[in-house]
Amino acid sequence: MSRALYQAFRSARAKRRALFLPYICLGYPTYAASLQSAKAALKAGASGLELGVPFSDPIADGPTLQKATQISLNQGTKFADVFRMIGDIRKAGFKQPLLVMSYLNLVEQMGWFRFAEVLAIKGGDGAIIPDLPLEQFSKFRRILIQKNLALIPFISPTSSPDRVKKADVQGAPFLYYVSVTGVTGARKTLAPDLLVSLKNLRGKLKTPVVVGFGISTPAQAGLVGKASDGVIIASALIQIMSKTKVSKIGKAVESFCRKVVNALR
Amino acid sequence: MTSLPNSHGYFGPYGGQYVPETLMVALRELSQAYSKARNDRKFKRDLRTYLTEYSGRPTPLTFAANLTAKYKGARIYLKREDLNHTGAHKINNCLGQILLAKRMGKKRIIAETGAGQHGVATATVCALFGLRCEVYMGEEDVRRQALNVFRMKLLGAQVHPVTSGTRTLKDAMSEAIRDWVTNVRNTYYLIGSTAGPHPYPMIVRDFQRVIGEEARRQMIKAEGKLPDLLVACVNGGSNAIGLFYPFIKDKKVKMVGVEAAGDGVKTKRHAATMEKGKPGVLHGSFSYVLQSPEGQIAETHSISAGLDYPGVGPEHAWLKDTKRAVYVSVTDQQALEAFQILARNEGILPALESSHAVYQALKIAPRMSKSSTIIVNLSGRGDKDVNTVLERLGSNLTGGKR
Fold it and tell me: N or C end of chain A: which has fewer CB within 10 A?
């Protein structure tokens, strides 16, 4: 239910504390390990999760996510596994919002109505589609809204003022701000003008802003968190998972997420 | 119909702009620059000059007298895009887009390439205009088309082998899009086919329509009438749309697009997107896509690297649905056969891509009346494919027979 998302952002703003939404790649390195990571992140205090469905041609993703995606697909990961994972996470008692991140074609092939229906039944809260432009937004948003699900618009450093405004009036629980002109991936430093841009942006927006792409460390998350409503970390988390034995992945994810959560306090 | 795409970039349901938000500003910038340029007299004059004096246009329409006599049916004409500078139709589009990039003040050009023909054409125009050029090419294609890789390097381009996914054109295009997302402020992405997000399918078509416009005039001059049939190979679809487009309103002119059937459309090794695919989103555009039932993009196969892409331009999808054009497929083996027939009977080595179209034309010609005419788009020359053909034919090839 998208209501959980709206509530999370309202209470975060009241506490002046940014949310942490880690990204979990479904089926990486295995379904079980990705489920374990998801639960570990939530246990560590993540405010919610972005559950990424692997796609054969992820044009917005850098090498780290491409590789994770490929490994997951080679395992035979199916789109339906994301619903299974949401079900498993809910069964384990976690109540935080869960967002499905998928490229458009997978949702198109499943059909938007069916996607919305299944996502709602399983207990998901919304969807993030990186290659769905604002121009095509409203007809799909309407389908999701009927099931109380959110569709998250993107804005980027290259978005013109009219596009930023257009994203703002979609009534979404938050806007996904791509912090760099580029693909996903951990970077040593934040985009140089990021904090200034965020300040300007937030002054103009009604909708909360969550920042993703290129945030790698708890310290960076802490900085970005002060200037935004939330932080997404993807590639850096995948890199940690890739360097850890499968049996210890849960622990590694939990410890990293805890550090980020603390940095956001 | 000629007013397509609409202002949002759609041909019926096909086309559009399904790209990350970061690129939307670049597509808008490109649309605006192009709509100014296309009506600008100087731009049009410059383009015409380069097409004539640099690429050698107009290319001839050659009457294939020997084949016509041999197949005893329609009079077969070849539109000789193989005689362009760099050996294929790709240069038409590259000259147009490089002039556009220059107008836009872009200093760095990126491109994707499959067979390497578009890469070579891009490297060529970048050398001509003194712009930095980087070409993405699947590792598998780098291997298959080593000669074209070397040509690009000779022309001063940097070639990035792409190791992700299936290591072919689709992955090269994904990688080029990623580069563009990253360097969007100073980089021009020179797409080589009628694929990708709007306005590319329109821009590439507009720069390729010169093929059909010339062919139309040449045919009227040679035969005093319009052709009865147009045949062209289709993958992304730039050479085919270039030939078809100026004839779309001439309802009596039939059009056949030929896709690559690889080992056969009943196997998994083919690239017959419109025959076996279904509508979906790939590389920013909604069109037919070869994909799994879930929507994962499929692996493709064709003997010709230039036909080895699981998508197709949105305008072709629309021509198929409206039945204005018909799309068929031809196997590797059949294309090889046509390659040799054209070589021995007309003294022309066609590109393996174009050989698919030649095969289809030779199949239909005997069933047509002797007063009817066919134009086959000979989109490129076969020199680049000699190694591939050698691998396939090997010692089976004997000289002296016709």
Answer: C
